[in-house]
Amino acid sequence: MIHNEPKRRLPQWLKRPLPAGDNFNNTSSTISQLGIETICTNANCPNKGECWSRGTATVLILGNICTRNCKFCSVANGKPLPPDKTEPQRIAELVKQLKIKYLVITSVTRDDLPDGGASQFRDVINTVRQLVSPANTLAGSVKFELLVPDFCRKASPSGINCQQKALEILSDALPFVFGHNIETVPRLYKIARSGADFQASLKLLEMAKKLLPDTPTKSSIMLGLGETDDEIEQVLKDLRNVNCDRLAIGQYLKPSKQSLEVVEYIRPEKFDYWAGRAKQLGFDWVMSSPFTRSSYYAET
């Protein structure tokens, strides 16, 4: 089993200085004062120092307790609290104080909610647009990228597929980039992403493109969990077959003691190879490097 393999020494290209500086401290203080969760902290992201020093962060909505327990992730698992109605206003205040022009919004998976949390994504976007006043020079310049769960619950009583229902709710908050991460190759789902389904994730991306044709779609895959080159190639082709536009490829790094061990540290030049291959396949935005994450320089 992957999680029983010995820990590998971190290569030099994956070492980073500790975060510091006035911008980092200001971002950290503002996030704390407003009581906002970030994926940066909850997932122990290695880019936290760099991103917070740039005055940006990826907000984590709907709490910090996930209804699933993926072994690649360090976000806590359990019974989450009901959605916080003050969250959209607090995030809008964060946008104003940090002068954020590109806001990435993600969430824990909320299988307990009828809409999977789609309405909270919608409300955050619309509240930010409403409260960042047109008189402000930032008005109209705030762009949004969503990194959503799979919204994969049983069909609703009305017979509408839950993924379709979630997308219909989100359509009230256009425009935005629609992101949903494949995470890894299908063979490793039982190990790394139990409770999820590769085909269901592909279906969500495909449905998003069909229902929201002018919306760019985006996905991400981690390397270093034991996948083969042939499996990576097939995932990229699968994503293009559902007209996924954007792709992020990064190195899996063990975020907690309970998480899966790293099987392999992929060299930077291999990430360069996959960047080139992804562009050949037709992705129009590609970021591929050891430190790439879904929201890393997403605004570029």
Task: Explain what you see.
The chain has 300 residues and is of the alpha/beta class. The protein has a domain at 19-219. Helix content is 34%, strand content 13%. It is built from ten helices and nine strands. It has a seven-stranded parallel beta sheet with strand order 1-4-5-6-7-8-9, covered by helices on one side. A two-stranded parallel ribbon has the order 2-3. Helix 1 packs antiparallel against helix 4 (87-98), helix 5 runs parallel beside helix 6 (162-170) and helix 6 packs across helix 8. The model is unreliable at 135-139 (pLDDT under 50).
Task: Give the biggest beta sheet.
Answer: 7 strands, parallel
Rg estimate, integer Å: 18 Å
Pattern of helices and strands: HHHEEEHEHEHEHHEHEHE
Give the strand order, joined by hyphens, for the main sheet: 1-4-5-6-7-8-9
Low-confidence stretches: 135-139
Overall mean pLDDT: 88
In one word, what is the shape? globular
Helicity, as a percent range: 25-40%
Instruction: Please report the distance between the alpha carbons of the first and last residues.
Output: 38 Å
Number of alpha- plus pi-helical segments: 10
Tally of extended strands? 9
Structural class: alpha/beta
Content of β-strand: 5-15%
